[in-house]
Amino acid sequence: MAFLLAVLCAVCYLPLNNAQGIVEHDRSDPDLFRPRLNAPGVDISTGGSRISRVIPGLLKAQRRAVIYSRQEEEECPYPVPCEGGGCCPADYQCCSTPDCCPLDSNCRPDHPGKCCPKSAETCGGKYCTDPGSACCSSYVCSPGLQCNEVGGGRQCCTPSELHCDDACCPEGSACAPMAGYCSSIRTTTPTRTTTSTSTSTRTSVATSSAPSTTECSPLMNARQLLEPRQRPFPKTCQKSCHPASNEELNVLEITPKAGETDQLAYSMCLGIITRLRNGQIVSGLADGEDILEYNGKGVRNTVADCSEYCQDVSKASGLGGGSFQCDEYPPAVLNPVGGAQTRWCVPRYQNSGTQGPMMSNVVLRCDLKAKDKVLVRIVGGCSKYNFPRNFEEEYSTFGDLFKPVPISPVPTPTLPVLKNTGMHTPRRRATIQLDASNATLRNPNGDSSLTYVAVEIDELADGHYDFEVSFAGGAAIDNVTVLNKYGDQYANVVAPSGSASLSFGINDGSNLPAALIAWTTEAVNVTYAASGTLAANGNTNAGVGVASYVPKGLLFFSMSGMLVGWLYA
């Protein structure tokens, strides 16, 4: 009886973990969240004299050669003489580069075509940004923000935010043990219940959490990223549990790799930063991340005018017609109706030869349907490019705008031998002949998780096409396919042996650059010879496409110029 009375008179409560009520967090804690990204400082350089026309997307060395050649061809109508026979307008000064800057600005020899206002913060001559900006070791923060380089991060925090590992965590939260994340502060409130007339004792705990929780755990990311990296041609969809949207998202990830994806990543970052400054990116995303929505098979919403946009770049590069292609962001298949787009000229092997296969892989592996969300992620972020506040495409170069160190040469994949008969004026010919070859093994992810050989096809007008493809080198081919720069697939053959035949029709009037992709783990020489019968009115009713490989027979499928799903063997 004494024992029972002791129980009846007991006071039960749940003690606090510590004085502040902050509990420990592990990697699976649902209270982990990504903080809002504060935009870094911006380049406020202004354009110099327009004596020299700058071509968008042209590499620095090529761009300079073009400028010098044009400068020599022009007379000097301005009153300020410069060395080398050039001249500048009144109230301008001559720069060491063939540019002119206003007298109230300084020349930027590290960035030809740019002038930095004398009132700007230069951080010892490294940058050109707003007065009052904070100079960090390798970047700048806008006025009123503070540098946060904890854990090797490059963040800009407000005075009230915590400086955490690669994160600026808001007031009322705590640093998380996971880099790039913050942790909500969870408190427990004890409630005491005492009774002497009952044999039961009840203890209740009230909990509160701020600022947010998620329905999926960031720990899921580690498990889901394993499979795509285990073998080439991943058969599973890469997904990410993302607190910013409170849901699991399909992932399109681009790792900038010199000579492979660097200019594609630059083009996408231009669009991401533009959307960020326009308030079109949801809060809680990390640097270089954006959430877009898939439009559905064959549904492309294009606002940017890419018609002939990169002709001058291709000509000036000396690499031949069509060597540069127009890339838009968001990509047309992920762009909402009427959505604004940026555009940039990138080498064709990084557009139809890289973006196309990567987009196709995401659409097929994740079985995307209309309205499905896609998390676009640029590994390493986009703030390093430090795009000017008022970005003008025609006065910007692809270069390292963030670090003014000289750009070292980078390896460039072998460009395919491309012989196009009449491809630049397809409407004037009833038939065309195409042939090209390439043997460069592409590895855009840099970790051999996605490898293939790409042979460029250039733009395809409406009509019917027949491709004969041969493979030399003995490597096994998982799949060969023809697709456009958005990843829309025209024809494919699974596991071809020695050669393959592909036939398809296009009738959507898109005139998109395309590529023939041979998915393989080893370098193999891929050659095609093709003929095309162009539609007289720009359209064709080629309703059925036929794909076959030798000697294993035929594979039939429906074609309407839209994406056709297939599974890797």
Automatic annotation (TrEMBL):
Signal peptide: 1-19
Compositionally biased spans, kind Low complexity: 190-214
Stretches for region Disordered: 190-215
Alphabetized UniProt keyword annotations: Signal
Domain of life: Eukaryota
Protein name from the UniProt record: Uncharacterized protein
Organism: Mycena albidolilacea
